[in-house]
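In the previous lecture we treated proteins in isolation. Real proteins rarely work alone, and many bind small molecules. This record shows how such a complex is specified: first the sequence, then the SMILES for coenzyme A.
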Amino acid sequence: MRQEFVFTLPVTIRPAQANDIPKLEWFGMITPYREILQKDFAASQTGQLIYLVAEANHFPVGQVEADLVRLQDAGAGYIMALRVLPPFQNLGIGARLMTAVEQAIFHQGILTAQLNVEKSNHLAQQLYEKLDYQITGEETTPWSYATPEGEVKTVNEPEWIMQKSLKKGGA
Ligand SMILES: CC(C)(COP(=O)(O)OP(=O)(O)OC[C@H]1O[C@@H](n2cnc3c(N)ncnc32)[C@H](O)[C@@H]1OP(=O)(O)O)[C@@H](O)C(=O)NCCC(=O)NCCS
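The predicted 3D structure, ligand included, written as tokens:
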């Protein structure tokens, strides 16, 4: 037996709230990064970071962040941690989160958006290219985090640096 039905699902993009943070672990998938979620949410509360979520049916199904401090001297906002819960991918939520975070950066008087994408992440790179980001360099900068079990993990992946001017277009 098989039944099909279609429904519309409104999605809201808004700043993250404290009660989103445990939900953003996505039933264990993001739990190793708990420390980062908590630290970034705290930074969003002091204005150092923009933390946006895409909410559907009272659940945060996507997120994006912009660090306003890291590239302050270069006059750029640093976009990071864009992700969409897998069953909700390829529906346009990632692109809308990007547009929303660009607008929020522009609203702070910052005219350039910059991000890093792992060279192996071709789908994300494609998305950023569609959104008018251009490769401006490359780097491999190791970074570490501690899992809730106290294990320290180090990520050491070659990445493209991509930039977009927010003066016209997206923002
Ligand atoms: C990258 C990511 C955030 C994109 O979000 P999304 O909601 O699926 O993206 P959208 O639906 O807005 O856009 C899809 C576009 O992005 C690309 N894309 C990225 N991920 C894709 C996927 N899993 N399936 C298909 N297309 C994907 C395609 O170019 C696609 O373009 P098209 O719609 O014209 O075919 C999402 O795939 C994700 O969470 N991936 C894992 C985390 C990650 O890699 N984040 C980026 C770190 S730099």
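Summary for your notes: The longest helix spans residues 93-107. The first strand starts at residue 11 and ends at 15.
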